[in-house]
């Protein structure tokens, strides 16, 4: 059965790999992202595209109307929008405290607000029963590694997902979080990844390799499948054993 799948941050990296995987299995996919040219160049077979900043309420109203007109119900909602904030324009700040405020505001806007607002905007359109909501967190949420603002913003998704799972569970909708470790072939690190850092991150894994966008996409695809119908309010780590338990 063809499902309607909405994916934010779908123009590159994990979001794009996920969009391609769902499309390859016959689902109808809507790619959301801020850059219309990137979405066009994604070339996901049969996909719809809509350029919007999902942290902006006015933009989200346009997304909501588009989904209502073109898709109706949403069977799978995947939140891949986010980032470390390193690629965002930053004002010059002489006051270090103002710089900290900018950093943390940007991190929560990119990683938390995008997910919360898009979920709430499309919440009434989630398929009942059988709907799936999937969030992308990070190994940093457990470790506080990298930029602490990014780690905190990703960690904030966990209690939100748990609360949402409790509220939507009686309607037959599951809510889960996938927390990847180091994943190559994305724009996440910009030009900050050097050989020494890469070797250290790979060495932390038990299978001694970097993750790929396809590894994460496959996990998301399974969590959205009927096989995972009794799995909800869980945080699934995809990191080659670099972080364990929880």
UniProtKB/TrEMBL annotation:
Please list every transmembrane segment annotated in the UniProt record, as residue ranges. Answer: none
Instruction: State the family it belongs to.
Output: Belongs to the short-chain dehydrogenases/reductases (SDR) family.
According to the entry, what is the taxonomic lineage of the organism? Answer: Bacteria, Bacillati, Actinomycetota, Actinomycetes, Kitasatosporales
A Pfam family that this protein carries is adh_short_C2
Q: What is this protein called?
A: SDR family oxidoreductase
What SUPFAM superfamilies does this protein map onto? NAD(P)-binding Rossmann-fold domains
Give all residue intervals belonging to the Ketoreductase domain: 3-205
Fetch the InterPro entries from UniProt.
Answer: KR_dom, NAD(P)-bd_dom_sf, Sc_DH/Rdtase_CS, SDR_fam
């Amino acid at each position: 059965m063809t499902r309607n799948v909405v994916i934010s941050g779908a123009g590159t990296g994990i979001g794009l790999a996920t969009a391609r995987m769902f499309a390859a299995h016959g689902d109808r996919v809507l790619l959301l992202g801020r850059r219309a040219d990137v979405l066009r160049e994604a070339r996901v077979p049969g996909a719809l595209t809509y350029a919007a900043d999902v942290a902006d309420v006015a933009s989200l109203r346009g997304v909501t109307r588009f989904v209502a007109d073109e898709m109706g119900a949403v069977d799978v909602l995947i939140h891949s929008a986010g980032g470390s904030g390193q690629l965002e324009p930053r004002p010059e700040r002489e006051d270090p405290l103002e710089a900290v405020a900018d950093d943390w505001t940007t991190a929560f806007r990119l990683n938390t607000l995008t997910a919360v607002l898009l979920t709430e905007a499309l919440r009434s359109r989630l398929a009942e029963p059988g709907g799936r909501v999937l969030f992308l967190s990070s190994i940093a949420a457990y470790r506080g590694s990298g930029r602490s603002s990014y780690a905190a913003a990703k960690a904030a998704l966990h209690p939100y997902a748990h609360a949402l799972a409790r509220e939507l569970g009686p309607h037959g909708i599951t809510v889960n979080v996938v927390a990847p470790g180091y994943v190559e072939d994305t724009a996440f690190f910009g030009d900050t990844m050097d050989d020494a850092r890469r070797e250290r991150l790979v060495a932390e894994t038990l299978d001694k390799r970097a993750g790929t966008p396809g590894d994460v996409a496959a996990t998301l695809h399974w969590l959205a499948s009927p096989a995972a119908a009794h799995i909800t309010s869980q945080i699934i780590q995809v990191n080659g054993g670099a972080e364990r338990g929880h």
